[in-house]
Amino acid sequence: MKESCIKPFVSKYFFASLLLSISFLLYLSYRSSLDSTIISVVDPTPSSAEPGLKIRPGYTSYDSYVQRQLNKTLNPKLRKIWTTRDWNRKILVFSGFFNDLKKKNLLFNSSKALCIGARMGQEVEALRRVGVSDSIGIDLVPSPPLVMKGDFHHQPFDDETFDFEFSNVFDHALYPEKFVDEIQRTLKPGGVCVLHVALSRRSDKYSANDLFSVEPLKKLFKRSKLVRVRTVDGFGLDTE
Q: Where would one find the signal peptide in this protein (predicted)?
């Protein structure tokens, strides 16, 4: 562990926090450059060969998938809840997670950070409050100044932009491989990724995939190394 960490410019590391019945950290070790080509024509019926990761059927096109995600993000009742009742509560919980990462030297005040699928930006605000001031979020619907518009299947950033990336919306990825590849592409050497996931068949009705074990997710991070898995309690997610 210490030996790996003292060579940040040789290997890339990711810290994946999966919020499910078990949580784990990924330190992803990059051994070759990633293909940054984005497929513009998307197979409307994606599938997964991994038994522990299932893509939900029913999407006739990528546009239909995006529209379903927008139905949640633009729901006025949900947006009101996210900015009122849930706002401070979520910031408090996220701040606790991020402070824990700082104590373990996986996140620093100097880190350039990205929150993926950040909606209204509670996790971005939490990062800023714990001292990580250079933080931004992306979502299909922007929420300035914390969240800019961006599709996590095709992040609007150059290669090796961020030191730290966080997400708790892996289940919303129609193309999990592309979701992970974009994280690996935009993380700097020595970068850390933390994912919070739910290892359950009872996930969000807007989810595009169901994850039943940690193994399929580990396999997606082909150029990375798993650091740890731990159980967490985060808004219905249980694994980091």
A: none
